[in-house]
């Protein structure tokens, strides 16, 4: 691995109440004329896509909308969105939602300038040209897709999720306005918040961690420890929601640059195979993968450091892992993979696919297939 460290984030990010208006003014100031909004039916239902569309139209833009993004966006979503973009000759893409909408928008914006099929870009930095400018309006405090160079697209034929890690899919502007999150239901607050926690922890034990990503990860854990359960209990808690916006962004800065590990590598397979929610898969897997990661002395020591940031009395890896289980119980996350409907007969193919996922490359322990199966078994029987 090269000794050179890179650090990648959007050139501009807006935070706080009023960030939507600030972003709309910014777009107007750049003299764009035609925009494509990429979102999902849930965002349409609550009226947020119409609100953003009206804001952009009031500033002189012609706006088209693709609103059929699925919870785990697939190749068909990318193709349909790209068709809508070309039909309207859109110059920019505006994504509204959580990870799914942003991932789909990233793929659309990438293909708009690079051509080909999205599967051509699976892996690391496969594209040659910058994407169309992407303005990512975040509505969940979890995935950090509004700022990262990651996009995850499901290949439904193969029942896998493709991890595309490419500097060219980094959004031009990230927007985190907590007012868009006040209506987020408790279950989604928990799942997305625990996704952010997973980002922090995997980045902190990653072999590509550095002092900058460490600072982001630990501060992210602090804010999540202080605010996630409060936001779960009261979705209109302004301070908790605002702090979670910052927490998930810090988590995104951490993993966008230190990458992830086997929690995500396995979770991607569960999502692609069973159409399960990504954040929930991460939450269930996180303590079990970290237990296996303690085979690495440095990772074990780092988990001990994490324990105190999670509020544990003891600075040990065991204490950290126990707090992670407690977080899950406090927010009614399914106890194990059995409750999620995962089948033991699929463990072998899930393990094989996880070992092909680029996210595992920075895990502190490079597991053999038998060890990945053992993780799945433990998370199934817990």
UniProtKB/TrEMBL annotation:
GO MF terms held by the record: alcohol dehydrogenase (NAD+) activity; metal ion binding
Sorted UniProt keywords: NAD, Oxidoreductase
PROSITE patterns (alphabetical): ADH_IRON_1 (PS00913), ADH_IRON_2 (PS00060)
Entries under SUPFAM superfamilies matching the protein: Dehydroquinate synthase-like
Pfam families tied to this protein: ADH_Fe_C, Fe-ADH
Leading EC class: oxidoreductase
Keyword NAD in record: yes
Fe-containing alcohol dehydrogenase-like C-terminal domain boundaries: 189-380
Chain ranges of the Alcohol dehydrogenase iron-type/glycerol dehydrogenase GldA domain: 10-178
Record-level GO BP terms: fermentation
Keyword NAD among record annotations: yes
EC number: 1.1.1.1
Names of the cofactor(s): Fe(2+)
InterPro entries: ADH_Fe/GldA, ADH_Fe_C, ADH_Fe_CS, Alcohol_dehydrogenase_Fe
Family: Belongs to the iron-containing alcohol dehydrogenase family.
Name of this protein: Alcohol dehydrogenase 4
């Amino acid at each position: 691995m090269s000794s050179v460290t890179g650090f990648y984030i959007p050139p501009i990010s807006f935070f706080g109440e009023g960030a939507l208006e600030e972003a709309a003014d910014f777009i107007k100031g750049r003299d764009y004329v035609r925009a494509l909004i990429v979102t999902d039916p849930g965002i349409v239902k609550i009226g947020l896509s119409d609100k953003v569309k009206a804001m952009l139209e009031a500033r002189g833009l012609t706006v088209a909308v693709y609103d059929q993004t699925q919870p785990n966006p697939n190749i068909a979503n990318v193709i349909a969105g790209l068709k809508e973009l070309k039909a309207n000759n859109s110059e920019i893409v505006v994504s509204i939602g959580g990870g799914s909408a942003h991932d789909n928008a990233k793929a659309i914006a990438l293909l708009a300038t690079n051509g080909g099929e999205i599967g051509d870009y699976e892996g690391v930095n496969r594209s040659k040209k910058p994407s169309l400018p992407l303005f990512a309006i975040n509505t969940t405090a979890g995935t950090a897709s509004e700022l990262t160079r990651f996009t995850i697209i499901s290949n439904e034929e193969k029942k896998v999720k493709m991890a595309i890690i490419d500097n060219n899919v980094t959004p031009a502007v990230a927007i985190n306005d907590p007012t868009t999150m006040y209506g987020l239901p408790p279950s989604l607050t928990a799942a997305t918040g625990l996704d952010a926690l997973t980002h922090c922890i995997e980045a902190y034990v990653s072999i590509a961690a550095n002092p900058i990503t460490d600072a982001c990860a630990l501060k992210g854990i602090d804010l999540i420890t202080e605010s996630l359960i409060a936001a779960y209990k009261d979705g209109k808690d302004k301070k908790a929601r605002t702090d979670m916006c910052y927490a998930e962004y810090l988590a995104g800065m951490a993993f966008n640059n230190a990458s992830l590990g086997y929690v995500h590598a396995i979770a991607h397979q569960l999502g692609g195979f069973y159409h399960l929610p990504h954040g929930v898969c991460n939450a269930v897997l996180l303590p079990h993968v970290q237990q296996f990661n303690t085979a690495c002395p440095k990772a074990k020591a780092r988990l001990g450091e994490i324990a105190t940031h999670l509020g544990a009395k003891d600075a040990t890896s065991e204490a950290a892992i126990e707090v992670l289980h407690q977080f899950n119980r406090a927010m009614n996350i399914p106890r194990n993979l059995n409750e999620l409907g995962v089948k033991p007969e699929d463990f072998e193919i899930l393990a094989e696919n996880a070992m092909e996922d680029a996210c595992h490359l920075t895990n502190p322990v490079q597991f053999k297939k038998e060890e990945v199966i053992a993780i799945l078994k433990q998370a199934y029987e817990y």
